[in-house]
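Give me the fold.
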Amino acid sequence: MKYSHSLVVAAVERPREGYVLLKLRLPAEVSLSDIEPGQFVELLAPRAPHTFLRRPISVNFVDYADRTLWLLIHEVGEGTRAFSALSPGDKLDCVYALGHGFPIDLPEAESYLLVGGGVGTAPLLYYGSLLHEQGRKVTFLLGGRRSVDLMQLDDFGRYGRVCLTTEDGSTGERGFVTAHSVWATEHFDVVATCGPKPMMMAVAAKAAEVGIDSCYASLENLMACGLGACLCCVEKNADGHNVCVCKEGPVFNVRQLSWQSYK
């Protein structure tokens, strides 16, 4: 089910400089179970006269008790900076929930490794929470350049074990997420990843190297319309054909993609 609403801002938080966490109140007619982990929302930037296109933002979390939808936004331009100027009580024009998300009904999968970098960690929180509710074993592997880049660690810790890497070694193990020792010491049935494309390609290659067949990636291509009409988000699939990430994804099994490093 897709919705188009002006949602009321319930809370505005700033987990670190350059980022804003919006919590939007969902109306009573919205079925919360319709929102899948890995789906996204198209936001109309308020009071941004030079921003004509909506901005695609991953679903960070759905709080069933509070009936709020969380969106973690990186401020990188006029459009995304406009969201940081919002206050509780303001309204935000939203189209949601769009695309296809992560699988939550893999019957034989018991252990999951959810790997994120930068703001790409955002959709993994909701995914991990639903897996946790199903009794699956969830491990989060989150990476950043510095310790300040790692956000929402307490939230992640409610739903699984949290492993960390930083490039400068200030928190967790030093290096990239693909170099963390958990790859060598444990086996996982499923890997899911979101973040910069080079990181996701490296995670897909690492999963194949250690014998994990099920690996899913949430792509972050520019998705202007969210409906498969503008064709600016296309990605080549394994057959060499273009697919619209916003409509066919944004989550794909990596075997569907033409990622040479995975093969």
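Residues 111-256 form a domain with the Rossmann fold fold (CATH 3.40.50.80).
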